[in-house]
């Protein structure tokens, strides 16, 4: 069944990285009219109409709030209260919760809950969830936050955690493969019990009203590629908000494609177009990830995400990888080509330096582990920039990677209307 289409899905692009690409990819896959929007546009009152839906992807809720500023937050609250629809995933869900200070929209009366042990924040993969009274489905979670279930009757629970899925990981440990006797030993020795501490029964997705508007918040990433049950749930929920036409689409495809085949848009091998250069950078980054795999630092989780040994800044690698895949597969707009002509040379220099430093980091990380296991000092003076200097901090970002990553994402933003990359 199709809902009458009268609006556009606007995707908040700030501080979203791979999660923004995931959301964009899911909307394009279903042929839904969508637009990438920046916080500054919202703060200045632009683009959001009364028939539209705002999709806020994962990422740092605080950085999104900082980008919106007090003016943007006030503007969004007013728009939702007047009848707008808000769909938030993970960090986008956290942004909508109630919190002290100016870093929250406060459209949902619930707060974000903490974890008794930070380790439990590090779950990733599929969980089994209960939607409604009977429907059980696998839903993907990627390092989720938690709702503080405060029993507010105005908040409706759409899905709850039920049990770990067969591919659920705790950091870099596959939970389903850990023997029960080992679990018991961990519990006796250090009080760690990942199995019994699983958040069974806790809310995973919720909905509610704010003024005349509506919100749906989910710590499950329903937009995850190649997740048929979650994707169907996404389109069902998005359509239920009454703003857009949503087909009962098949599973969202991965954006990961062989850089040799390209997108078939006719410009992919043109040496004068930016995607050709981005394709070369993509191929080089894939080489580094395969090197990381040889060095036992990375492993391929699925077609679009690489897993990493705990302590390695794997999310930074994945953010860059996703942006390069998308950049190498869409047709650049005239605005993007203009930006490339103006700043592309500096960007290419930054990328060459970054990729070289990323390679050095992988070798240094492996050698430090070897020295540590041999009982020698793991400090390697003058071996190159630190992980923080290259990759910044996990949530705030920064480092050498920030500028080239932002440049690619700006090319994507400027090119968003030029082509449906799945066509």
Q: Care to describe what's here?
A:
It is a single chain. The protein has 423 residues and is α/β, with parallel strands linked by helices. The protein is globular. Strand 6 (123-131) and strand 7 form a beta hairpin. Strands 1, 2, 3, 4, 6, 7, 9, 10, 11, 12 and 13 form an eleven-stranded mixed sheet that branches. A two-stranded antiparallel sheet has the order 5-8. A two-stranded antiparallel ribbon has the order 14-15. The chain has helices spanning 18-29, 39-43, 61-81, 91-96, 180-190, 228-240, 274-294, 314-327, 334-373, 387-391, 402-415, and strands spanning 9-12, 34-37, 53-56, 85-89, 111-113, 123-131, 135-142, 146-148, 156-164, 169-170, 173-174, 203-210, 213-218, 298-300, 306-308. Helix 7 packs antiparallel against helix 8 (314-327), helix 7 packs parallel to helix 9 and helix 8 (314-327) runs parallel beside helix 11.
